Amino acid sequence: MHIRKIRLLTPGPTPLYPPALHAMMGADIHHRTQEFVRVYKAIIADLKEVLGTSYDVIPLACSGTGAMEAAVSNFFRRGDRVIVCSAGKFGERWVQIAQAFGLEPIVLEAEYGEPVPAEAVIEKLSSTPGVRGVFIQACETSTGVEHDVETIGKAVAQTEAIFVVDAITGFGTMPLDIEGWGLDIVVGGSQKAFMIPPGLAFLTVSPKAWKHEESSDLPHYYFSIRKEAKNALEGQSNWTPSVALLLALHAALQYLKQVGMAKLIENARLLAQATREAVQALGLEVFARKSPSAAVTAVKAPAGMDSGVIVKGFRDRFGSIIANGQGSMKGKIFRIAHLGYFDFPDLFAVIAELELLLAEQGLPVEFGRGVAAAQHVYAKAALQKAAVAH
Predict the structure, then answer these.
(1) Of 145, 217, 149, the residue nearest 184 (C-alpha)
(2) Are 154 and 181 in contact (CB under 8 A)?
(3) DSSP string for residues in 295-321
């Protein structure tokens, strides 16, 4: 009660992998030396291994939004007709970036809490001539919804368009077969399942996307993907890199290779299932009505209560940082993340805290009911694992 540890329970930044933090202390190396070249080449090779692709992977010193902008400015032409799937604040960001660079976005919107149906994307793609790209979030972090990336990707692959996927929260929380599903440009970020601080992003680029890059006429200088790819062959970044964050990523990637991406995804999916069952056992409603995300669970605030009360309670009572809703959802939902360096003991504590906060607000709460629901998910998974081992 008198000692409170700060716990990050947001969908980004997320809890940090301790050896990655230690690795950052070795950042006093120059980025134009052979020592750095070895690390940079290893990072790119490890990213390809972890992401399961042979495509080019381009690290960038920026937030994920910088990589989203680079995905537009390097691969499209002014006036290009593109389909943008928008199911929340980050889908809206794709729209805004496309408009900023003079593209012609055809926006397919879904109500907050719903994914954009794959069938709607496929129908629009087939009925609209001259589409040069399709943009989507693998996971719409603002609402806790996943999109059907596989079905859409395979449909886009049959056209001249390229498929651009914001997987900043999707990586490490859902399967993403980059080459098998036709994902031409996939954007990732450091502060999610990669377990290190914000400030690094990366893109994977398919041969089909490189063909688009050859005809792009949009302005870019810092975010020149062609220059970055050329320099990466020599183990160099085009501009001064974030050496400390790259060292952190190098350490985190060793851990991710050890765990395996499939198990990291399974961990997130089990935690998400346990979170949903726990909050429902407490009489709360999960916001995502279809295709809920394994990265973050969005929960509707109890009737008549501002979700900010719960967010503030977590912070002030327990030092636990969860996320409020964004935009029009602020005050209506709260979001609990469970991706990256996050385990079941973390979740048991989160649900116990939620029970106490709801009781404090006068709601009828049977202490332990939500925690028990989460425990049952863990126990079932552990028993299945033990049975397989034997």
Answers:
(1) 149
(2) yes
(3) SEEEEEPPTT--HHHHHHHHHHHH-EE
Is residue 2 in some structural domain?
no
> Are both 248 and 282 inside the same structural domain?
no
Residues 135 and 85 sit within 8 Å (Cβ to Cβ): yes
**Residue 192 near residue 29, CB atoms below 8 Å:** no
Residues 157 and 89 in one domain: yes
Same domain, 225 and 285: no
pTM score of the predicted model: 0.96
1 found inside a domain: no
Structural domain range at position 367: 7-13+261-389
Which range is least confidently modeled, 211-215, 287-291, 376-380? 287-291
Say if residue 390's pLDDT is above 60. no
Quick: pLDDT tens for 62-107.
999 999 999 999 999 999 999 999 999 999 999 999 999 999 999 9
Q: How far is CA 248 from the centre of its chain?
A: 18
The H-assigned helical ranges of 233-298 are: 243-259, 261-281
Residue range 323-347, pLDDT digits in tens: 999 989 999 999 999 999 999 999 9
The verdict on residue 269 lying in a domain is yes
Residue located via tokens 């069938």: 119
Q: What is the CATH number of the domain that holds 192?
A: 3.40.640.10
From 214, 240, 259, the end of a domain falls on 259
Q: How far is CA 46 from CA 90, 127, 260, in A?
A: 28, 40, 12
The answer to whether residue 62 is domain-embedded is: yes
What is the total count of domains within the chain? 2
Give tens-digit pLDDT for 199-241: 999 999 999 999 999 999 999 999 999 999 999 999 999 999 9
Q: Among residues 211, 233, 259, which one ends one of the domains? A: 259
Extended beta strands in the chain, E state: 7-8, 56-61, 81-86, 104-109, 131-137, 139-140, 145-146, 162-166, 185-189, 200-205, 296-300, 320-321, 323-324, 333-337
